[in-house]
Specification:
The chain is built from 1 helix and 3 strands. By secondary structure, it is an alpha+beta fold.
């Protein structure tokens, strides 16, 4: 039995601090993907696992795997 080739996928994940502690993670390129972690490192690990599962589900359903377009995030400060 031959194993399918692995491919590296890269996505932007947003970590948002929760009021009661921990972080919520979303990945805009993967609609509906939301996970959480107790700290930023845990949240990142949870995101990796959630992304992996999301992609495996798409593969099993023989659906296209989204490719993220190049994005940039910048903070803008203003004085008002």
């Amino acid at each position: 039995m031959t194993k399918a080739k692995s491919r590296i996928y890269e996505y932007t994940a947003f970590l948002e601090a929760n009021k009661n502690g921990g972080y919520t993670v979303t990945v805009p390129a993967l609609p509906g993907l939301v996970t959480e972690g107790g700290d930023p490192n845990d949240a990142r690990d949870m995101a990796k696992d959630a992304i992996r599962c999301y992609i495996e589900g798409l593969k099993k359903a023989k659906q296209a795997i989204p490719v993220e377009m190049e994005t940039a995030q910048v903070k803008v400060s203003i004085t008002a």
